[in-house]
Amino acid sequence: MTFLGMPARAPRGVGHLRGDESFPVAARKALANSQLRRNLQHATTTIRGKSGRVIAELPDWQELRSAGSALKAYTMARLPELLEQLEENVTAAGGVVHWAADANEANRIVTDLVRQTGERRVIKVKSMATQEIGLNEALEAAGITPVETDLAELIVQLGNDKPSHILVPAIHRNRSEIREIFLKAMPDVDPGLTDDPPVLAAAARRYLRETFLSTKVAVSGANFAIAETGTLAVVESEGNGRMCLTLPETLITVMGIEKLVPKWSDLEVFLQLLPRASTGERMNPYTSMWTGVTPGDGPQAFHLVLLDNGRTAVLADEVGRQALHCIRCSACLNVCPVYERTGGHAYGSVYPGPIGAVLSPQLTGVADNPSLPYASSLCGACFDACPVKIDIPSILVHLRNQAPHPRTEAAVMAAAAYTMDRPKLYASAQRAAKLARIAGRRGRGLPPPLNGWSASRDLPSPPKETFRDWWRSR
Q1: In what residue span(s) does the Lactate utilization protein B C-terminal domain sit (predicted)?
Q2: What is the pLDDT of residues 304-329, one digit of tens each?
């Protein structure tokens, strides 16, 4: 029997799905960092412009979005049987499939597999799933050194930092900051290193090339897994993925169970959607696909770790399960006015931005991330940008209803409901509302705790005449 178990949330104390502070507290600190805001505005504006231009080239973009959404919905509806089909085909091709119910189990599986090889270092191709579960920390605790090979991930790792973007983890850093990180933490770096981007890239390439050629175990993520053939796919822009997937003797892939697609032909849709929505490219510079083990060619041992870590619980929510359709393109981050001003660290999760505001609370349970569903203006830009039509604003509202509310707020809402349900009482309340002018301009004069409402909103001025008065006079 193969199964991931009953719906359960991602465990506490492991991984990177919960922040140390609420979003409002962390966001205030980020807003005070003017350099961070400049970096974010420049990067997101550039990506939006590139993406918009290449999307405009496709006359059937909206039809492609609808096809991607339909394929994801179909996959989620048949997920158990498709996962078993994937396992069967990976096994038939010489791979080994492991089922991990949560982060602790996934970390234990990967750590044991690396130990069995006798190696003490692994190379990694960018994988948000391994960041989600805190795999690097688990490997280091076992005496195994993980080396990130994606340039942005390497910058984050060398700087003892955290990723702040799904696609560009070091988006909050500029080139002078990157130079300082390389000079301080990169082995054998040229002391005369400048902040010219080609020079920085060349320094990283020299460091990584030696690492690629001398490391026998790799850990990867997966953008897609094809149930029909047992094939895994990674798309990237630098070639580091190709090196990780072909040079080592052992390859371990950690993949969230939602990354599945039913058939090989389904990639046609997603390989058009993903690059345009994410990097503003017509196609990925590197698309690597592999099926099991091929004798004499590439890794001779392949392990696939299928990760739940709260995904089954998300699937059980008829509204929230849309979040599992995400293909990690980051389009929603690049158009979000909140993310552009606060950056990713304020969200406290490896999944920042609008998609993180709906995915992270569902993986952990809303009570563990109660402020994230409110990290949005509900402007709807994320829904318009999403290549698979995830209705993020609707999920945000859905999760806000599940979030714990202060007793004061609950009492106020109950009083409002009681009043609105009684016409005479409501009419009296409307007349009394004229006294609200004493609150001053924008409601800044409201007493506690009501002034908390107007801290981030303007209190509408009550009209001089209510609709009831106007109607009665006519």
Answers
A1: 401-474
A2: 999 999 999 999 999 999 999 999 99
Q: Rounded to the nearest 10 degrees, what angle do helices 175-185 and 151-158 cross at?
A: 60
Record: fold of 77-311: Rossmann fold (3.40.50)
Measured between its terminal Cα atoms, the distance across the chain in Å is 74
Look at strands 224-226 and 286-290 and give their pairing.
unpaired
For residue 366, give the amino acid letter.
Answer: V
Annotate 193-210 with b (16+ C-beta within 10 A) or e (fewer): beeeeeebeebbeebbee
In which region does residue 348 sit, left (phi positive, over 0), alpha (psi from -120 to 50) or beta (all else)? Answer: left
Cβ of 474: how many Cβ atoms within 10 Å? 5
Q: List, as own/partner pairs, every contact residues 138-144 make where C-beta atoms lie below 8 angstroms and the sequence separation is at least 24, other chains included.
A: 138/14, 138/107, 138/108, 138/110, 138/111, 139/110, 139/111, 139/114, 142/111, 142/114, 142/115, 144/111, 144/114, 144/115, 144/119, 144/120
Q: Is 128 within 8 Å of 351 (Cβ atoms)? A: yes
Rg (CA), the chain: 25
**Residue pointed to by tokens 């999944």:** 351
Least confident of 34-48, 94-108, 328-342, 352-366: 34-48
- Angle between helix axes 23-31 and 34-55 (nearest 10 degrees) is 100
In angstroms, the CA 320 to CA 458 distance is 31
CA 104, CA 100: separation in Å to the nearest integer?
A: 8
Q: What pLDDT digit, counting tens, does each position of 240-275 carry?
A: 999 999 999 999 999 999 999 999 999 999 999 999
Helices 392-402, 353-364: inter-axial angle, 10-degree rounding:
40
Distance CA 11, CA 301 (A): 30
Cis-peptide, bond into residue 449, ω within 30° of zero: yes
Report pLDDT digits (tens) over 166-184. Answer: 888 888 888 999 999 999 9
Among 134-138, 220-224, 255-259, 461-465, name the one with the lowest average pLDDT.
461-465
- Per domain, the residue ranges of the chain are 77-311, 407-473
Q: How far is CA 360 from CA 82, 103, 388, 469, in A?
A: 24, 14, 19, 48
CA distance 355 to 369: 14
Distance in angstroms (rounded) separating the CA atoms of residues 220 and 242: 11
Task: Read off the pTM.
Answer: 0.89
Decide the pairing of beta strands 145-148 and 231-236.
unpaired
Q: Which residues, listed in sequence order, are joined to residue 123 by a DSSP beta bridge?
A: 147, 218
